[in-house]
Write a structure and sequence with these properties.
This protein has about 200 residues and is an all-beta fold. It has no helices and 18 strands. It has strands at about 15-20, 25, 30-40, 40-45, 50-60, 60-65, 65-75, 80, 85-95, 100-115, 115-135, 140, 150-155, 160, 165-170, 175-180, 185-195, 195-200. It has an 18-stranded mixed β-sheet that branches. β15 and β16 (about 175-180) form a beta hairpin.
Protein backbone atom coordinates (compact mmCIF):
# COMPACT_ATOMS: atom_id res chain seq x y z
CA UNK A 1 0.00 0.00 0.00
CA UNK A 2 1.03 3.58 -0.63
CA UNK A 3 1.64 5.89 2.35
CA UNK A 4 1.47 9.64 1.88
CA UNK A 5 2.95 11.62 4.77
CA UNK A 6 2.67 15.42 4.75
CA UNK A 7 4.29 17.79 7.26
CA UNK A 8 2.80 21.26 7.56
CA UNK A 9 3.21 24.28 9.86
CA UNK A 10 1.27 23.58 13.04
CA UNK A 11 -0.90 26.69 12.61
CA UNK A 12 -1.90 25.86 9.04
CA UNK A 13 -5.50 24.95 8.19
CA UNK A 14 -5.80 21.39 6.89
CA UNK A 15 -8.22 19.98 4.28
CA UNK A 16 -7.99 16.23 3.61
CA UNK A 17 -9.99 14.39 0.94
CA UNK A 18 -9.49 10.62 0.71
CA UNK A 19 -11.30 7.91 -1.25
CA UNK A 20 -9.94 4.64 0.14
CA UNK A 21 -7.39 5.23 2.88
CA UNK A 22 -6.83 5.60 6.60
CA UNK A 23 -6.36 9.24 7.64
CA UNK A 24 -4.22 10.20 10.65
CA UNK A 25 -3.90 13.86 11.67
CA UNK A 26 -1.64 14.84 14.58
CA UNK A 27 -0.64 18.07 16.34
CA UNK A 28 -2.67 20.36 14.13
CA UNK A 29 -3.57 23.78 15.59
CA UNK A 30 -4.76 25.82 12.62
CA UNK A 31 -7.99 27.73 12.11
CA UNK A 32 -9.86 24.85 10.48
CA UNK A 33 -9.56 21.10 10.06
CA UNK A 34 -11.68 19.47 7.35
CA UNK A 35 -11.44 15.71 6.73
CA UNK A 36 -13.58 13.85 4.18
CA UNK A 37 -13.10 10.12 3.63
CA UNK A 38 -15.05 7.52 1.64
CA UNK A 39 -13.56 4.27 2.93
CA UNK A 40 -11.13 3.93 5.82
CA UNK A 41 -10.61 4.99 9.43
CA UNK A 42 -10.13 8.61 10.47
CA UNK A 43 -8.00 9.40 13.53
CA UNK A 44 -7.24 12.89 14.87
CA UNK A 45 -5.04 13.29 17.98
CA UNK A 46 -3.24 16.03 19.91
CA UNK A 47 -4.88 18.72 17.76
CA UNK A 48 -6.61 22.01 18.56
CA UNK A 49 -8.21 23.50 15.43
CA UNK A 50 -10.59 26.43 15.78
CA UNK A 51 -13.22 24.56 13.75
CA UNK A 52 -13.40 20.85 12.96
CA UNK A 53 -15.36 18.95 10.31
CA UNK A 54 -15.04 15.16 10.03
CA UNK A 55 -16.96 13.20 7.39
CA UNK A 56 -16.55 9.47 6.91
CA UNK A 57 -18.68 7.17 4.75
CA UNK A 58 -17.31 3.76 5.72
CA UNK A 59 -14.93 3.40 8.66
CA UNK A 60 -14.45 4.37 12.29
CA UNK A 61 -13.92 8.01 13.28
CA UNK A 62 -11.84 8.72 16.39
CA UNK A 63 -10.72 12.13 17.61
CA UNK A 64 -9.18 13.56 20.75
CA UNK A 65 -9.13 17.29 20.15
CA UNK A 66 -9.69 20.78 21.48
CA UNK A 67 -12.02 22.81 19.29
CA UNK A 68 -14.72 25.48 19.48
CA UNK A 69 -16.93 24.11 16.70
CA UNK A 70 -17.37 20.49 15.70
CA UNK A 71 -19.30 18.79 12.89
CA UNK A 72 -19.13 14.98 12.55
CA UNK A 73 -20.94 12.91 9.93
CA UNK A 74 -20.58 9.13 9.73
CA UNK A 75 -22.52 6.70 7.52
CA UNK A 76 -21.10 3.32 8.57
CA UNK A 77 -18.71 2.98 11.50
CA UNK A 78 -18.28 3.84 15.16
CA UNK A 79 -17.64 7.44 16.24
CA UNK A 80 -15.58 8.27 19.35
CA UNK A 81 -14.91 11.96 20.04
CA UNK A 82 -13.41 13.44 23.22
CA UNK A 83 -11.33 16.33 24.52
CA UNK A 84 -11.59 20.05 25.27
CA UNK A 85 -14.58 20.59 23.02
CA UNK A 86 -16.69 23.72 23.56
CA UNK A 87 -19.10 25.89 21.57
CA UNK A 88 -21.35 24.17 19.03
CA UNK A 89 -21.38 20.46 18.20
CA UNK A 90 -23.27 18.55 15.50
CA UNK A 91 -23.12 14.73 15.40
CA UNK A 92 -24.73 12.46 12.80
CA UNK A 93 -24.39 8.68 12.56
CA UNK A 94 -26.35 6.31 10.32
CA UNK A 95 -24.98 2.92 11.36
CA UNK A 96 -22.64 2.55 14.33
CA UNK A 97 -22.21 3.55 17.96
CA UNK A 98 -21.64 7.19 18.84
CA UNK A 99 -19.62 8.32 21.87
CA UNK A 100 -18.95 11.97 22.67
CA UNK A 101 -17.26 13.50 25.72
CA UNK A 102 -16.67 17.25 25.70
CA UNK A 103 -16.45 20.26 27.99
CA UNK A 104 -19.09 23.00 28.32
CA UNK A 105 -21.18 23.54 25.19
CA UNK A 106 -23.48 26.23 23.87
CA UNK A 107 -25.35 23.79 21.64
CA UNK A 108 -25.36 20.11 20.75
CA UNK A 109 -27.35 18.37 18.01
CA UNK A 110 -27.08 14.59 17.77
CA UNK A 111 -28.85 12.24 15.38
CA UNK A 112 -28.35 8.48 15.20
CA UNK A 113 -30.27 5.97 13.07
CA UNK A 114 -28.86 2.61 14.19
CA UNK A 115 -26.54 2.33 17.19
CA UNK A 116 -26.17 3.43 20.79
CA UNK A 117 -25.40 7.06 21.67
CA UNK A 118 -23.44 8.16 24.76
CA UNK A 119 -23.05 11.88 25.43
CA UNK A 120 -21.03 13.44 28.28
CA UNK A 121 -20.65 17.22 28.56
CA UNK A 122 -21.73 20.38 30.37
CA UNK A 123 -24.24 22.95 29.10
CA UNK A 124 -23.82 26.70 29.37
CA UNK A 125 -26.75 28.68 30.83
CA UNK A 126 -29.19 29.26 27.99
CA UNK A 127 -27.67 26.45 25.92
CA UNK A 128 -29.64 23.91 23.90
CA UNK A 129 -29.42 20.16 23.34
CA UNK A 130 -31.35 18.07 20.83
CA UNK A 131 -30.57 14.37 20.59
CA UNK A 132 -32.52 11.77 18.60
CA UNK A 133 -32.04 8.06 18.00
CA UNK A 134 -34.13 5.76 15.86
CA UNK A 135 -32.85 2.36 16.95
CA UNK A 136 -30.51 2.29 19.91
CA UNK A 137 -30.06 3.49 23.46
CA UNK A 138 -29.48 7.14 24.28
CA UNK A 139 -27.42 7.96 27.38
CA UNK A 140 -26.79 11.54 28.54
CA UNK A 141 -24.45 12.41 31.41
CA UNK A 142 -24.21 16.02 32.64
CA UNK A 143 -23.05 17.93 35.75
CA UNK A 144 -25.48 17.97 38.66
CA UNK A 145 -25.46 21.79 38.56
CA UNK A 146 -26.93 21.87 35.03
CA UNK A 147 -29.70 24.44 34.53
CA UNK A 148 -32.21 23.36 31.88
CA UNK A 149 -35.72 22.28 31.07
CA UNK A 150 -35.77 18.64 29.94
CA UNK A 151 -38.25 16.94 27.64
CA UNK A 152 -37.89 13.25 26.81
CA UNK A 153 -40.09 11.08 24.59
CA UNK A 154 -39.84 7.43 23.56
CA UNK A 155 -42.11 5.49 21.24
CA UNK A 156 -40.86 2.13 22.47
CA UNK A 157 -38.42 2.29 25.34
CA UNK A 158 -37.94 3.15 29.00
CA UNK A 159 -36.77 6.44 30.50
CA UNK A 160 -34.43 6.65 33.49
CA UNK A 161 -33.82 10.03 35.15
CA UNK A 162 -32.82 11.23 38.63
CA UNK A 163 -35.16 14.20 38.17
CA UNK A 164 -38.87 14.32 37.45
CA UNK A 165 -41.58 11.71 37.07
CA UNK A 166 -41.67 9.41 34.05
CA UNK A 167 -45.13 9.11 32.48
CA UNK A 168 -46.07 5.90 30.66
CA UNK A 169 -48.58 5.65 27.84
CA UNK A 170 -51.92 4.18 28.91
CA UNK A 171 -52.12 2.13 25.71
CA UNK A 172 -48.72 1.31 24.28
CA UNK A 173 -45.04 1.05 25.24
CA UNK A 174 -44.11 4.72 25.02
CA UNK A 175 -42.96 7.01 27.83
CA UNK A 176 -42.33 10.71 28.40
CA UNK A 177 -40.66 13.03 30.88
CA UNK A 178 -40.90 16.75 31.53
CA UNK A 179 -38.68 18.13 34.27
CA UNK A 180 -36.50 21.10 35.19
CA UNK A 181 -32.93 21.20 36.46
CA UNK A 182 -31.88 24.25 38.45
CA UNK A 183 -33.58 27.42 37.22
CA UNK A 184 -34.25 25.91 33.78
CA UNK A 185 -32.26 28.39 31.69
CA UNK A 186 -31.26 25.86 29.02
CA UNK A 187 -33.24 23.40 26.90
CA UNK A 188 -32.69 19.65 26.50
CA UNK A 189 -34.86 17.61 24.10
CA UNK A 190 -34.28 13.86 23.85
CA UNK A 191 -36.22 11.49 21.61
CA UNK A 192 -35.94 7.76 20.94
CA UNK A 193 -38.12 5.67 18.65
CA UNK A 194 -36.88 2.23 19.69
CA UNK A 195 -34.50 2.24 22.64
CA UNK A 196 -34.12 3.35 26.23
CA UNK A 197 -33.14 6.87 27.31
CA UNK A 198 -30.95 7.34 30.39
CA UNK A 199 -30.06 10.62 32.08
CA UNK A 200 -27.24 10.79 34.64
CA UNK A 201 -26.21 13.77 36.78
CA UNK A 202 -22.72 13.75 38.30
Amino acid sequence: PTILEVTLPQKASVDVDAVSADVDVQQMAGRKLDVSNVSGNVVVTASSPGETSLENVSGDTTARITTGKLDVNSVSGDVRISGGITGEVSLESVSGNLEFAGKTLDRLDSNSVSGDTKLVFGLRPGGAVKAETLSGELELTMPRATSAKIKVETFSGDITSPSGQVEHEEHGPGASLDTTLGDGRGRIDLESFSGDVQIHLE
